[in-house]
């Protein structure tokens, strides 16, 4: 066995892996041309201007057609989309929302910003929420579930939807990290009541920032549009919702997507299938090679292997210490792997764990719930165990077959050195 780079040996790769920015890595003249049209037309605002290009509308129409949903709304970020979704569903002060223990801070943060309080469900070996743990956190004050497909791996939505329908809950699908993923033939984001997407820098497709909301429900869409645009619905005729009376009007905020974002995103959206196909091919090749060489290696499970987009390969190590050791050694081999979110459940972030907000009396945590919301370090034991043990390899759509061979070589060398008895 060749000597590890961390011990002075030759690294498996001569240069680092491509940075983990799938959409940005294929960004080029097409996005620049679309953005320049908007700039030269002097019309960066989506609803009016001297030379409207209607880029955001084109993005919404393309997403609706390809996803098979009637309603898509471009917004400023996925965080904005989450808040708009919660407000569209009428969720706020006095409500609880189920959130997985493994997700980015924005997911429970949006719940708090909407005036509700998150309660946390554990994960299983998919590192997505465990449908079998939903009953533990269910009570009469829970109004919705946010199902988050982490790093391209779809949530097992069938039992989630069954649980939600049984208890009369709404379901929001947060597919910020999993644009293009599918579950049993349906795109993630189109299965629940509302789906939300992210176009932030390190997402599958990107404009640096941006997001979208999708739904099949016209009433929810009406409320979402209004909340994202100061309570107004400027394009009712576009959706055959034209009415002379504003009977559904209420006060909203400003989460409107700009035409510049829309211009970049329409080209990125057209590249999505190619990005996903490239990632799936190379991720599948890496996993198959590792499974053949390392029969004891445990991989992250998936509810739908065909629906996983292959943006990241999750490898579960024997312990948190072993995972740290594995990461350090692979970095020396110039293979950039990582442990997500510092190896901790999201509820351990101090401002969440201590229920601290910028509002008076720590609103909305000050609501007198019949079942008080308290967070403890080990309340989601599988998350506490699995998150620090799971090492992710990002799979760029620009990886070559040579890159794949070198990645496999490096991982096999390191894994055998630490975990395989000779």
From TrEMBL:
Q: What class of enzyme is it?
A: transferase
Write down the CDD domains for this protein, in alphabetical order.
Answer: AHBA_syn
Q: Which UniProt keywords apply?
A: Aminotransferase, Pyridoxal phosphate, Transferase
Asked whether the keyword Transferase is assigned, the reply is yes
List the InterPro entries.
DegT/StrS_aminotransferase (IPR000653)
Instruction: Give GO BP annotations, semicolon-separated.
Output: polysaccharide biosynthetic process
What protein family is recorded? Belongs to the DegT/DnrJ/EryC1 family.
Q: What is this protein called?
A: 8-amino-3,8-dideoxy-alpha-D-manno-octulosonate transaminase
Organism of derivation? Paenibacillus solanacearum
Taxon lineage = Bacteria, Bacillati, Bacillota, Bacilli, Bacillales
């Amino acid at each position: 066995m060749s000597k590890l780079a961390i011990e002075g040996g030759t690294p498996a790769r001569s240069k680092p892996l491509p940075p983990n920015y799938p959409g940005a890595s294929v960004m080029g003249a097409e996005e620049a041309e679309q953005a320049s049209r908007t700039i030269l037309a002097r019309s960066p605002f989506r609803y009016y201007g001297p030379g409207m290009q209607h880029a955001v509308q084109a993005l919404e129409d393309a997403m609706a057609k390809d996803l098979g949903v009637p309603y898509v709304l471009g917004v400023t970020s996925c965080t904005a989309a989450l808040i708009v979704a919660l407000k569209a569903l009428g969720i706020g002060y006095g409500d609880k929302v189920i959130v997985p223990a493994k997700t980015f801070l924005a997911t429970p943060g949006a719940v708090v910003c909407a005036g509700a309080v998150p309660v946390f469900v554990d994960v299983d070996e998919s590192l997505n929420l465990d449908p079998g743990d939903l009953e533990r956190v269910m009570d009469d004050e829970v109004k919705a579930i946010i199902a988050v497909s982490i790093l391209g791996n779809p949530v097992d939505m069938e039992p989630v939807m069954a649980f939600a329908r049984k208890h009369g809950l709404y379901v929001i699908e947060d597919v910020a990290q999993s644009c293009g993923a599918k579950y049993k033939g349906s795109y993630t984001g189109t299965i629940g009541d509302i789906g939300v997407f992210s176009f932030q820098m390190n997402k599958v497709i990107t404009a640096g920032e941006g997001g979208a909301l999708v739904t099949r429900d016209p009433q929810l869409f009406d409320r979402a549009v209004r909340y994202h645009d100061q309570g107004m619905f400027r394009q009712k005729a576009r959706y055959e919702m034209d009415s002379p009376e504003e009977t559904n009007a209420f006060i909203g905020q400003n989460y409107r997507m700009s035409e510049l974002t829309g211009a970049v995103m329409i080209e990125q959206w057209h590249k999505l299938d190619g990005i996903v196909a490239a990632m799936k091919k190379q991720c599948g090749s890496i996993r198959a090679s590792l499974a053949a060489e390392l029969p004891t290696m445990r991989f992250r499970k998936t509810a739908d292997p065909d629906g996983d987009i292959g943006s990241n390969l999750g490898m579960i190590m024997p312990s948190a210490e072993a995972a740290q050791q594995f990461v350090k050694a692979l970095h020396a081999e110039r293979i950039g792997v990582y442990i997500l979110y510092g190896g901790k459940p999201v509820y351990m972030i101090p401002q969440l764990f201590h229920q601290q907000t910028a509002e008076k009396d720590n609103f909305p945590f000050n609501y007198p719930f019949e079942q008080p919301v308290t967070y403890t370090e080990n309340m989601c034991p599988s998350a506490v165990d699995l998150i620090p043990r799971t090492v992710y390899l990002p799979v760029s759509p620009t990886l070559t077959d040579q890159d794949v061979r070198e990645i496999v070589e490096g991982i096999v060398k390191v894994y055998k050195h630490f975990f395989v008895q000779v």
